[in-house]
Amino acid sequence: MSEWWHLEISEAIRQIGLIDGHYLLYTMLVISTYFVVNDVIRAIKKRERRTGLTPSQSLELTIDGSKKHQVKTYISEIQGISGRPDAVILENGFFIPVERKPIGNKVRDRHIAQLLVYMRLIEEFEGKKPPYGYLIIGKSARKVKIYNTPERQNWLSIQLDEMKQIVAEKTKAVAQPQKNKCAHCKVQDHCESRFSTHSPLSSTPPPRQGFVLINPK
């Protein structure tokens, strides 16, 4: 396709001095279309790098007989939250959010919190509470089912309330430096909260907020 475009452009430029204004308009159209197509291709590749999904891998999210639902950005003024899942599938009569995490092989609390937010939004906008969601973890695309339980939603409410308090400057965010992360941080020399063997915060790992990760089986 790229070779064809180059041939078209070369021929159009050669003919510029020989033809009338109509062909000149056609030439400009060909050149403009070429750059638009290139921009679209770059945007697609950029999204693939960000999500870790190629178009063929995206289709794999609809496995086990599930149907793909249109993905959209949910913005809830009532709850004060918003989000856009990587995919939404129809499974057993429910809208199920799917989130891809291509980097790392562990399920993190922040991954589960993100999926729980999507489940709240889907319940509000689609009118039905998702019983679970899926995390697709690592390069091997391991599928982990995260159940939407009252205990997890209560935990999420606590996290959201704390975030809102910090944003409203009613409370101060507390740094939780970790040795392995601070060691690779580019701004550690300018960070007052960086990991230090003399810091009381660095003597223990960050708290898990009383939240237990689900069984990934």
What does this structure look like?
The chain has 217 residues and is an alpha+beta fold. Helices cover 41% and strands 16% of the residues. It has six helices and seven strands, in the order H-H-H-E-E-E-E-E-H-E-E-H-H. It has helices at 2-15, 21-51, 55-59, 109-126, 150-167, 179-182; strands spanning 67-69, 74-76, 81-83, 87-91, 94-101, 132-137, 142-147. Helix 1 runs antiparallel to helix 2 (21-51). The chain is extended and about 70 Å long. The two termini are 45 Å apart. 16% of the residues are buried. Residues 53-63 and 199-217 have low confidence and may be disordered.
End-to-end span in angstroms? 45 Å
Classification by helices and strands:
alpha+beta
Sheet of most strands: 5 strands, mixed
Examine the secondary-structure arrangement and name the CATH architecture of the domain at 59-148: Alpha-Beta Complex
Shape verdict: extended
Describe the strand arrangement of the main beta sheet, using strand numbers: 1-4-5-6-7
State the CATH topology of the domain at 59-148.
Answer: Lambda Exonuclease, Chain A
Low-confidence stretches: 53-63, 199-217
Roughly how much helix do the residues carry, as a percent range? 40-55%
Strand and helix order: HHHEEEEEHEEHH
Oligomer kind: single chain
Question: What's the total number of strands?
Answer: 7
Q: What is the percentage of strand-forming residues?
A: 15-25%
**Top-tier CATH class of the domain at 59-148:** Alpha Beta
User: On the 0-100 scale, what is the average pLDDT?
Assistant: 76
Give the C-alpha Rg: 25 Å
What is the count of helical runs? 6
